[in-house]
Amino acid sequence: MKRRIPKQGLASPPPSSSSSVQRRVHSQRKDSRPFSWWLKWGLLALFVVFIVLPYTVKVLPNLIQHYVYAHRLRVPFFADLSRPDEFSLNHTINMYLTPEEGISLGVWHTVPASQWKEAQGKDLAWYQDSLGAGGPVFIYLHGNLGTRSAPHRMGVAKILSGLGYHVLVPDYRGFGDSTGEPTEDGLTTDALYLYNWVKARSRNSLIVIWGHSLGTGVATNMAVELVKQGVVLDGVILEGIFNAARQNIPFHPFIWYYWKYPGIGYLFKEPWAENKVVFPTEENLKQMRSPVLFLHSEDDHLVPISIPQQLHEVAASVQGAERVKMVTFEGSLGYLHNGLYRDPRLPGIIKEFVQSLEG
C-alpha cells in the first residue's frame, strides 16, 4: 500500500526576516503619507498666495474689475427692474438712458396718480410727452444701498405722484440694472444728464431735485455744476444730508458694492482707491442759489441731527432764511434714516414747498 502523508496545518510558516523588513517599510510609508499630503498642499497654497494672486492683481486688473462689477448681486434677488408694474407702480414706465458711451442708466418715470387710467398701455413716447403738460417734475436721487425698487424710494414716488407730480427715479451707474462703476464724478454726470434730458422735454415745468443720503451729495454737486453754467435749479430737497468735511464717516459710500464678494477686499485693491470721494456738501451749499428744504429725523442713526442743523445755518447765511427751510421729525416716531416717507405730514410739507417755488 501506498503510504499517506498527513496534511500540514493551515498556519503560515514563520515569517522570514526579509518579509518582516518589507512590512516595516510599508508601515513607515503609510505613516508618512499625511505629512506628505499637508506639505504638498501647503506649498501649493503658498504658491497661489505669493505668486499667482500678486501676478493677477498686477497683470490682470481688468479681469478683476469684471469679476467685481460685471456680475454684481442686487437685492431683491431676481427682481426685474424693467417691469415697474411688478412693484405696484402701475402708472410707471422703465427706460434706459446713455449719459456716456458704454453707460446705461435704468430710470423709472411715474406720472401723476390722476393719470393712472390714461397711462395704462402707453409707450415711452406718451410718457415723455406728458412731461411737458405743465406739472412739477421731481428727480429723486437715492442713497447708497439697493436699487430704485427699495420700499422707501417707492414710498416717496407714490407720495409725489399722489400730489400730482411727475417722478423720475434713476439707478446710478453700477446700481440696479445700470451698467458701469460708481464714482463721485460718474454719479454727478448721471444726475446732470437726467436733469438736462428732463429739461429738454418738460418745457417750462418746475423741476425739483430730491436727494436722500448719498443723493444729497450728488444733488449739491450737480447744483453747483449747473450754477457754473448759469443755470439755477428751481428747488432742492435734501433728506438725511451728511457732511464729509465735519462728519467722521467710517466707511466708503460704495463699500457695500465692493464687499458683496466676501473677503475680496483682503486680496484686491479697491477699484476707487485712486478716486477719493469728497462730496463737498458744505462748500456746495455756499455756492448754490436754489431754494432748499432740509428734511431730517431726530433719531437718524447714520447722521446726527447736528449735521443738518449746521448745514442749514450755512445755506441760510448765504441765501437767507426765506429761501432755506428745515423740517425735523421727532425721534419718538422711529423714522431713523429711511422712514420719513411714512409721516402723514410729509405730503403737506412737500406741497407747501412746491407752492413757494411756483409763487
UniProtKB/TrEMBL annotation:
GO terms for biological process: monoacylglycerol catabolic process; phosphatidylserine catabolic process. Residues 136-227 form the AB hydrolase-1 domain. One of its GO terms (cellular component) is endoplasmic reticulum membrane. Residues 1-26 are annotated as: Disordered. This is Lysophosphatidylserine lipase ABHD12-like. Keywords: Membrane, Transmembrane, Transmembrane helix. GO terms for molecular function: monoacylglycerol lipase activity; phosphatidylcholine lysophospholipase activity. It comes from the Eukaryota. It holds the Pfam family Abhydrolase_1. InterPro entries: AB_hydrolase_1, AB_hydrolase_fold. It comes from Salarias fasciatus (Jewelled blenny). The chain crosses the membrane at residues 37-57.
